[in-house]
Amino acid sequence: MRKKIVAGNWKCNTTVKEGVELAKSVNELVLTRGAKDVVVVLGTPFTHLISVVDAVDANRVNIASQNCAAVAKGAYTGEVSAAMIKSTGATYVIIGHSERREYYHENSEILNKKLALTLEQGLTPIYCCGEALAIREAGTQNEFVKQQLDETIFLLPTEQLLKLVIAYEPIWAIGTGVTASTQQAQDMLAFIRGLIAAKYNAEVAKEISILYGGSCSPANANDLFSQPDIDGGLIGGASLKSEDFLAIINAY
Ligand code: 13P
Prior knowledge:
Layout: E1 4-9, H1 16-33, E2 38-44, H2 49-55, E3 61-65, H3 82-88, E4 92-95, H4 98-103, H5 108-120, E5 124-129, H6 133-138, H7 141-150, H8 158-161, E6 165-168, H9 182-199, H10 202-207, E7 210-213, H11 221-225, E8 232-235, H12 242-249
Parallel strand pairs: 1-2, 1-8, 2-3, 3-4, 4-5, 5-6, 6-7, 7-8
Bound molecules: 1,3-dihydroxyacetonephosphate.
């Protein structure tokens, strides 16, 4: 049975002190009022990882980094490797977020290196895909997302693909307040699951959690999560408020 997952992506927000307070607050709410069958993940800045890992109950709240280096180690000033992330106690890594693809020019070749290094460390990649508005308006979003997957995760062998979580985040819905309609999100996630079934097999497709991300909020999470192919969410803005994040966790 694939997992239901609600993952927060704090992006470039909070100081360490604020982040630890937020993590403690989420942890407390999840322990006392959180849906038991939902895997909770907090994607924090690198600087926060060790402190946030310490601040939460590892059996209930998982910690993710939002990126990792495309190299294992060496003279790469400013980079943070998958092994370093692992050594903090974090267990997930967000890879290929559209903001990294767009602002830091991360292409499929770079993402494949990150995927390999992350998997090598036994960390779980949350692999992001999704189209820009112009592509959605042209109606070619399926072809676009298929190409993103063909060039990256679909190059992995079955046993590695099964270790991934996939997050579909249409760029036009990120931070805009414009959520994809429940039908648009379900259609794309079903399309992705169909691609996995065709490329690997139906059993593999059934096992992989696929999340929706983009202006997900307490107001729309229930509708989104009621869809058969939507296994949870990758949450930006609403993950910065512990009560909102809890409401999304409990939207199932
Ligand atoms: P918002 O929820 O703020 O739209 O961000 C979504 C996102 O990019 C999560 O990775």
